[in-house]
């Protein structure tokens, strides 16, 4: 296994500090593309989505603005998504749809130089026009992990890809490992951006003022500059604040903030992604996200309350299972035998067994108990 050098880890840490700034979904792609070359050299970078429901690929940002439209790359990509989706057209995307493995894949992993030259869509009508010879991609789990077997069964699948292209076939295992190291941080940045966008959309829709947002602003000297009314309500609900603490944060929240600050300021090693703080009470979950506004010299805490997910057939469908697979797994969770499940669903126990095989493949497990545990974890019902 390739070992990353101290310089590699230092570059990755600098990338992480730049990555976790205040961005919404619209600004994040350009921000990622602007800083990615500092840790992964290349001639062309792009950040795109593939929507299997609408059968379209959308380039959200690239290192050469609008080049996809000018050269017709978007049209080529959409033709792939709508029609073939075969290894002959785009081996990397095909590999992901087949395996669900979103880690860094390189075009040359699957195709020789001669084979790539014969890719009419991917190479002849796109990469060749930019004098590019190789491509490395990662996929982020925007929705559920898709497979070829579930494409038609889950119309809401949406893939998010970050791509690095070079003029030579010289991607190394070091490049692959660095990209894989950045992947969970890119996913966390995407989640943060989604949370910010949801709040921005809610503010526009309701024409809210700042006071109506669940926001806490802490200065770099640790003094509290602002606690909005809705944020105070949530703090009081989850931390049982007293009236005398209106300008102070709960001690446990202060300690968590100090830990988050330490993650962003340490320089000796690469850290794990800055995960949100989550608290639960009375069937609801409070998520507190930590962000830095370096321009203003402030730390921002975004508070968001949501109802806890329930374990139901409908909830299982959101994980990429078909309706019948969800019904089978729901029966398994109730400790029903294959025969009992088949009787309830009007099918044979052999059919139930076949559905279970498909469920195991999708969830990456090998037993009934492991399948139940896997979906409980994905639904956030098991900690």
Automatic annotation (TrEMBL):
Domain HTH luxR-type as annotated: residue spans? 314-379
**GO terms for molecular function, please?**
DNA binding
SUPFAM superfamilies (UniProt xref): C-terminal effector domain of the bipartite response regulators
The record's SMART domains line, in alphabetical order, gives: HTH_LUXR
- Read off the InterPro entries from this record: Sig_transdc_resp-reg_C-effctor, Tscrpt_reg_LuxR_C, WH-like_DNA-bd_sf
Entry-linked Gene3D superfamilies: Winged helix-like DNA-binding domain superfamily/Winged helix DNA-binding domain (1.10.10.10)
Annotated GO biological processes are: regulation of DNA-templated transcription
The record, for CDD domains, names: LuxR_C_like
Supply the alphabetized keyword list.
DNA-binding, Transcription, Transcription regulation
Protein name according to UniProt? LuxR family transcriptional regulator
Its organism's taxonomic lineage begins at: Bacteria, Bacillati, Cyanobacteriota, Cyanophyceae, Oscillatoriophycideae
